Amino acid sequence: MILPGLKLQTRTLVLSIGVALVPITLLSVGVLTQIRASLLEQAQSDHRGIVRRLRDSIDANLKEYQRQMELLVSDMRVQAMKERPVHEALHNFLGFHDSYTSIFLYDHELTVRFVEFRNHSSEGDRLLGVKMGPGGSAGKNRLAAALAGVLATGKPAFHDYLRKDSSRSMLLLLQAVPSFTGVGPPVGVLSCAIQMYSNEFQDLLDGLSLEGSTYCLIVDRMGRAVARKGQGLPQVVSKVEIPKLGEQPSGENTGWMNVLDRVDLVTISPVQEMGSTIVVGRPRNEVLVLLEGVTQRIVLFAIIGIVLAVICALTLSHSLLKPILELTEGIRKVGEGAISHRVRTWGRDELAQAGEAFNRMAAQLQKGKLMEQIWAQQWEKKDGS
To answer: How far is the C-alpha of 374 from the C-alpha of 385, rounded, in Å?
Structure first.
């Protein structure tokens, strides 16, 4: 028996409310959970769309750089490795392409043979004859390994190089220089430094359409913002801490992250060729703003449903329990000797049939009592005579 310690009327009322409350609660929780999941999926989809559009633009730029370098290394003046023709070719290349700051030409032993700077700096003179190899700084060792890889495979590669003197990242495009005769292994490697943090990348962000407080940044390997767009992140924020995503992260990584004094939904996508990271974020309260409004409406509807459930429970308990209580009261009175008591009946349901059966029983008891009284009177008369 459910809730045996309570009266029948109280039990019926509690159970009726519970039967109505449980499905309302489950339905509300289910709807809110589904809406939350849909909002998060939509926000993540928006972030992925922004990242992919930006990556497509970056990839297009990088491919254009590769095409320009392929044209440069195909120049016979570069392939001949002669001082005057090489300087002329490199100087003309820098004059025509504003995205490059310097060009280094290494021979097959990875020794610096030629250097050209956009600003005609004399710094290159002291670098001539320097051989790249083990024993230098970590950054130079990485660069030497990258140069050796390009020389061995003949395939171009991007290399993110951190200058020790400026703590500034440079994007180097490494391209093998084929032999002048077209036969045999490459005769050297050309390394071009690209202004990866010039206005080009800010222009890429400016071309994006961002909704609400969504923000987008490109940060270098040190976490410094080099291009940004969006009002969701204050301008005073110039550096962000990128969580470690593993040894070889790929694709988009999305999750809730602490940003200043709030929580944002942030998508992080590394651009390995540039040694940089794309960051797209949006404040949590803006992502789930629709959920808050829906939650208020669902709570209101749930309260209305509970009130209606209470009213229905009261009505139901009254309509069901009134005949039962009257029947119980009739049984009690008949048990106490009031055999003339009858109960009212409504309709033709089981309770009405039980009431009619009780009335017939009470009538039989009353008839038996009357017969008993008659026989008692007869016996008294007989004894008196």
So the answer is: 17
- CATH class for the region spanning 74-196: alpha beta
**From start to end of the chain, where are the E strands?**
100-107, 112-117, 157-163, 168-177, 188-194, 215-219, 225-229, 253-259, 262-271, 276-283
The order of strands in the sheet holding 276-283 is 225-229, 215-219, 276-283, 262-271, 253-259
Place of tokens 């109280």: 10
Q: What angle do CA 135, 274, 153 make, to 5 degrees?
A: 60
Q: Are 239 and 223 in contact (CB under 8 A)?
A: yes
Tell me the per-residue pLDDT of 74-105, one tens digit each, with 9 for 90 and over. Answer: 988 888 888 888 888 998 898 888 888 889 99
Residue 18 belongs to what H/E stretch? helix 8-73
Cα separation, 93 vs 207, in Å, equals: 28
Question: How far apart (Å, rounded) are the C-alpha atoms in residues 41 and 136?
Answer: 48
CB 161 within 8 A of CB 146: no
Q: Give the pairing type, strands 168-177 and 188-194.
A: antiparallel
From 159, 107, 147, select the one nearest 129 (Cα to Cα).
107
Tokens standing for residue 371: 């017969």
Contact 343, 326 (CB under 8 A): yes
Which tokens sit at 286?
């803006």
The β-bridge relationship of strands 276-283 and 215-219 is: antiparallel
Both tokens of residue 223? 């976490």
CB 346 within 8 A of CB 58: no
Summarised one tens digit per residue, pLDDT across range 293-327 is 778 888 888 788 778 877 877 777 777 777 777 77
Contact criterion met (CB below 8 Å) for 169 and 162:
yes
* Structure token digits, residue 200: 């080009």
**What does the pLDDT average to over 7-17?**
70
| Phi, psi of 145, rounded to the nearest 5 degrees | -65, -40
| C-alpha to C-alpha distance for 359 and 199, rounded to whole angstroms | 99
Domain ranges of the chain: 8-23+291-378, 74-196
Q: Is the pTM higher than 0.85?
A: no
